[in-house]
Amino acid sequence: EDEAQRKAEEAEVKRVQEEAAARRRAAEEAEQRRAERAAELEAARQREEARKAAEKEAARIKAEKEEEKRRAEEMKTARRKQAEEDEAQRKAEEAEVKRVQEEAAAQRRAAEEAEQRRAERAAELEAARQREEARKAAEKEAARIKAEKEEEKRRAEEMKTARRKQAEEDEAQRKAEEAEVKRVQEEAAAQRRAAEEAEQRRAERAAELEAARQREEVRKAAEKE
C-alpha cells in the first residue's frame, strides 16, 4: 500500500510538474506571439509613416510645380497684356505725332514764323508728355514689383504655416503610435511576469507536495520500524 501510495504521489507530482511545464511552454509561446505581433505592428507603423512621408513629399512637390506653373502663366499673361498696351499706346502716340506734324506742316506753309513757334511748343509738349509717360511707367513697374514681392511673401508665409501645422500633426500621430506600442509592450511584460509568478507558485507547491510525501514516507518508515 505504501508503494502504491508512493507511486500515486509520484505520479501526482509528475502530473503537476508536467502541467506546470505545459503551462510554462504555453505562456512562453503566447509571449513569443505577443512579441512577434508587437514587432509586426511596429514594422507596419514604420512602413505607414514612410508611405505617408513619401505621399506628403510628392504632394508638396506637385503643389510647388503647379504654383510655379501658375505664376509663370500669370507673368506671361501680364507681359502679353503689357506689350499690347504698349503697342496701342505707341500707335496712339505715333498717330498724335503724325497729326501734330501734319498740322505743323500746314501751318508752316501758311506762316513760317508761327509754324516755328508752334513746332517748338509741340516739341516741348511732346517732351513733357514723354517724361510724364516715363514717370507713370516707372511708377507702374514699381507698383507691380512691390505687389509681386508682397504676393511672394504671403505665399511663403502660407507655406510656412502649412508645413508647421503638418509637422505638429505628424508629431502628435507619432506620439500616439509610440504610446500604443509602449502599452502593448507593457501589457506583454505584465502578462509575462504574471506567468512567471504563477509558474513559481506551481513549482513551490510541487516542492511542498514532494516534501510532504517524503515526510510521510519517513513517518511511515519510522512507524513500521
Main traits of this protein?
225 residues, rod-shaped, 2 helices, mainly alpha
Topology record:
Layout: H1 2-110, H2 112-224
Helix pairs in contact: 1-2
Q: Count of DSSP E strands? A: 0
Report, as a whole number of angstroms, the end-to-end distance.
16 Å
User: In terms of per-residue confidence, which ranges show pLDDT below 50 for 5 or more consecutive residues?
Assistant: none
Helix content bin = over 70%
Note the overall shape: rod-shaped
How confident overall, as mean pLDDT?
94
Structural class: mainly alpha
Order of helices and strands: HH
Oligomeric category:
single chain
Percentage of residues in strands: under 5%
Please report the number of helical segments. Answer: 2
| Radius of gyration of CA atoms, rounded to a whole number | 48 Å
The largest sheet is: none
Notes on the structure:
- With 225 residues, the protein is an all-alpha fold.
- The chain has two helices and no strands.
- The longest helix has 113 residues, at 112-224.
- The two termini are 16 Å apart.
In a few lines, what is going on in this structure?
The protein is an all-alpha fold.
